[in-house]
């Protein structure tokens, strides 16, 4: 089955009976606990992220060796680290304006 044509790569996988069974099995296997922080988990996460090169590889998409149960906080942290849109030291304030946070680091390093 070719999953690349969905709106977001991998979306169709999450609608399959096989994925739902694997997700339920894995959730129970780790007792519903986030594998990073020990809080209640709710996202069965692929350690190797699904992309165009592996979306049709069941060794990536459907292997419990590539899964971990995360809470929303750890899952968001995982994706922020991989997909952080801002340069280090910059954030948005409460009004949505870009601002620089002085971290005390020497920014003139060569």
TrEMBL record:
Report the domain of life of the source organism: Bacteria
Q: Does the keyword Nuclease apply?
A: yes
Q: Which GO terms describe its molecular function?
A: endonuclease activity
Q: Which residues form the HNH nuclease domain?
A: 21-76
- Keyword Hydrolase applies: yes
Q: Which SMART domains match?
A: HNHc
What CDD domains does the annotation carry?
Answer: HNHc
In terms of InterPro entries, this protein maps to: HNH, HNH_nuc
Entry keyword set: Endonuclease, Hydrolase, Nuclease
PANTHER family linked: HNH NUCLEASE YAJD-RELATED
Question: What does the similarity note say?
Answer: Belongs to the HNH nuclease family.
Q: What is this protein called?
A: Putative HNH nuclease YajD
